Amino acid sequence: MFIKSSITLTLSLILFSGLQTTSFAQNPEKVTIEVDLAKSKGPLKPIWAWFGYDEPNYTYMKDGKKLLSEISQMNKVPVYVRAHSLLVTGDGTAALKWGSTNAYTEDANGKPVYDWTIVDKIFDTYIERGMHPIAQIGFMPEALSSKPQPYRHFWKPGDNYNDIYTGWAYPPNDYKKWAELIFQWVKHSVARYGQKEVESWYWELWNEPNIGYWKGTVEEYIKLYDYTADAVKRALPTAKMGGPGTTGPSWDKAQAFLQTFLEHVTKGKNYVTGKTGSPIDFITFHAKGAPKVVEGHVQMNMGTQLRDIDKGFETVASFPTLKKLPIIIGESDPEGCAACSEDLHPQNAYRNGTMYSSYTAASFARKFDLAENRGVNLLGAVTWAFEFEDQAWFRGFRDLATNGVDKPVLNVFRMYGMMEGNRAEVKQNLAYDYKKVRDESVRGAADINALASKNARSAAVMVWNYHDDNVPSGDVEVEVKIAGLPSQRIQMQHYRIDNQNSNAYEAWKKMGSPKAPTPAQIAQLEKAGQLQLLTSPEWINPKNGLANIQMSLPRQGVSLLKFSW
């Protein structure tokens, strides 16, 4: 729904685009990007094939199942999915920033009652699609909460965000009962899905325990971790256990929590065994950017997100025994609140259009460089965006689809899904490398750059034209010089995301932004939301393995050149 504040922001953007100003650098006349497919930078890990969301009960609803099917189909590797509230008490009714499964209750005598019906319904939906869960262990069942009331919240956009932190956020009143719950959950999962399947999962304790999601102390979280890890490993010794899922480590308090946790698992006294350390198979933390409205337009801050990531990598790398453990950035996004809609939060007006897609292309590429620089093992970066059932069309949530229609950002993940093999060299003599984006964000010239991959029978080059300031600008002529192609006949496909291609939002606006599109309009929007070719596929004949590709790339546009032989 395109309501008043969004209209004001858009009008401001249109008016602002006509002003002559020196605040924003003009586009260069031409940019040359050099790619050498013969120079490998190691495996291109599919760090993009990880997704998550607050509301677990959306998983098996109409649009949730449709979107999960699409996400699974666009990747040749298994997709991992992380959701909150898998142990929260309730009847399974879905709501913003709320979910429940009723997995644990107690009878009149205080005896545990386990009911895995809704948890199974969630995980069945993933596994039927070839996906795997990041089984987030949380939050606290009402019967186990040390401060259960109030328990259920009824948050909606515009309310105080702190209102969500109710009885589910507190430590248990009985750590042994909590541990038995986790033990039973893992045992049940093995019985239902098989040991091999459950061994592929990542069991993670809690979410952002350094802020309101955890109403206990750091030491109480550590105690909970020891009891949880012990229970998981007793049920399945080969299970993968990790945490702590803190907020961005560039914030001192978050970094201190992460540091304290890692010190405990390496040399602290275990609350359960009395021995030194705790089991840990992977490490998690989060990283977010910080958009704002500046002079009537949205200004992103990719540097803030990259500094979070880099500080987390630096912290992990400082522990020699942990440095090579897999790292999962459990939420990795342009900002923090997926359910905070654009109509009430104008800084989130990037979400429906191509700014979200170009930001995603550029930021994911830099995560590889940051991990390589710190010498750590980045396994995945979870995009905390899914869908919101029964909401206004294009309301401006941080989601991948609206009412079953894909948004431009989902097409970046379709592009990434076509990249496989080894990461190839892209020469860094352009306006930005990862260090400059990390330290300065993208405030001067546009970030026009690329990520490339190659395997035995194909190669791909993703090219983007990104800027933090969402101000209209002319197209840029880009020449992509590619070396290392086989000297034979090759098919090239050129995919594009911009205002004319792979963009259901622009199609919806051209319809007049209908609040209730007709079935025919919905079909048209669904088609517009798919990844589209800019031109028909063509055959090229590289000479000496060289090819020069010319393109005109709009601001916030993304192209994927796919070569097959």
UniProtKB/TrEMBL annotation:
Record's keyword terms, sorted: Glycosidase, Hydrolase, Signal
Glycosyl hydrolases family 39 N-terminal catalytic domain span: 32-528
Q: Name one GO biological process term.
A: carbohydrate metabolic process
Q: Which InterPro entries match?
A: GH, GH39_cat, Glyco_hydro_39, Glycosyl_Hydrolase_39
- Enzyme active site: E208 (proton donor)
**SUPFAM superfamilies for this protein:** (Trans)glycosidases (SSF51445), Glycosyl hydrolase domain (SSF51011)
Tell me which positions the record assigns to the signal sequence.
Answer: 1-25
Q: Short name of one Pfam family for this protein?
A: Glyco_hydro_39
**What does the record give under GO molecular function?**
hydrolase activity, hydrolyzing O-glycosyl compounds
The family annotation for this protein states: Belongs to the glycosyl hydrolase 39 family.
What name appears for this protein in its UniProt entry?
Beta-xylosidase
Tell me which species this is from. Answer: Dyadobacter luticola
